[in-house]
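Researcher:
Attend to C-alpha cell order:
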Amino acid sequence: MRWSELTGPTYQQLGHRDTIDWHYHDVPQLVYPSSGLLAISTALGTWIVPPQRAVWIPVRVAHAHQAHGPTQLRTLAFPASVDPLGLDNPALSDGQLIDAMMEHPILINRPIVVAPLGAKLCRPSELVLDILIDKQQGAFTKEDGERVVDDQGRRLI
C-alpha cells in the first residue's frame, strides 16, 4: 500500500477494468465518477458508485478503485480537519446516517423522474428532457443559470 498526496479537485480517465491500487491520503476526499461506473473498495467492503454519486473517504482510510466501462474518475480533497457532519465516524448507525441525510438533503439530492417513456436519474437536470413525451414549450434554465432550452423551445445543449 502506498501513500498518495492529494490536493484540490482531480480528474482521471479510466478504461474498462482499469484499477488504482490500494493507497491512502492524509486528507479526506469525495470520490465520484462523472461517467462510467466505479467500484471503490476499503477494508469494510466494496461500493459500486454510479455517475453523479459520491463516496466520502476519511483521512488515512486505505482504498482502491476499479472502473467498469470507460469512467471519468473525479475526486475533491478537503483539509484534514474537515468532517462537516462528523460522518466519518465508523460507530455511526445506519439510522444516524439516514437522520443526517434527512437533515441535509443535499447529501442525497439525486432526483429520479418517472414518466411514460421511463424512469431516469436526472442529474444533470436537463436529462429529464429525454423522457418527456411532449417537448419543452418554453425556456428552461438550470439551477446554475445555464440555459438548456431557449424561449422558442429549441434545445441549446
